[in-house]
TrEMBL record:
Subunit structure: Homodimer or homotetramer.
Source organism of the structure: Acetomicrobium thermoterrenum DSM 13490
Name the UniProt record assigns to this protein: Polyamine aminopropyltransferase
Example of a GO MF term: spermidine synthase activity
Gene assigned in the entry: speE
Function: Catalyzes the irreversible transfer of a propylamine group from the amino donor S-adenosylmethioninamine (decarboxy-AdoMet) to putrescine (1,4-diaminobutane) to yield spermidine.
EC primary class: transferase
Gene Ontology, cellular component aspect: cytosol
Amino acid sequence: MGAMERRVADLWFTEYQTPNLRLGLRIKDVLLNKQSPYQHILVVDTDQYGKVLVLDGAIQLTETDEFCYHEMMAHLVLCAHPCPERVLVIGGGDGGVVREAIKHEAVKKVTLVDIDEDVINTSRTFFPNVSCALEDERVEIKPMDALLYVKEHFNEFDIVIIDSTDPVDFASGLFEPEFYKDVHKALKDDGLMIAQTESPFAEPKLLSEAFKGLRSVFENVYLAWGVVPTYPTGFWTYSVGSKSIDPRIQRRSAPKGTKYYSDDMHPLAFKLPPFVREIIDGDNLKGAKAD
């Protein structure tokens, strides 16, 4: 090393998105590194995407692109429902979906159920622009097991949003037909539910099985898609279960200030590339709606 050269720390966070796929981000600072009763929580500051929340090694959100995911998860169903007064958010302890839900004047109450209170507190501390709605008077927070909570409620919610982590460990039950049955019972007759169902490139089998599970429970199921740059492959899917109404029809305009979701985007999100339709319609089960 020359006399004028300096060694510089070169720190990287690497997410192993599949056994054969990795995403790396250069780290400016490690802000939090802890183990909660349920999962490992990491918050890092990066040059490319700002602050990043990582749970059990998987990126949950970044300051730069979180709106892509949170807006789609909330507004695809909230704008499709004629009057979404009661909203249940399962998971989503960071508060991003809640932030989007309360932008709708029709919403009277949002109940957030996340088993890990440490995630909620972490978002309050490090992601105030994401968690800002958690203090709203219309928001009720229940730090408990969503599988148990949903079983105790019947015909109560207009919208259920399942903002789950990857289907491993304590979150695996949120992708099972038995859970979908409980969600179906918790919804009103014109209720809608939405769940993130991963990438068709990285997890085609998971997408197929989750969609099949929903079709075994709901009268009609639809798939939408969007872009989330830091999620595996950047191509993400959202499965919508409906008791009666067609979520492809936008009944209420997008709230002001959205950066990804829009009135134009709503119908387009349900237009699927042929390879995605093939993944979910391989068995042509009754009630399937591809686009």
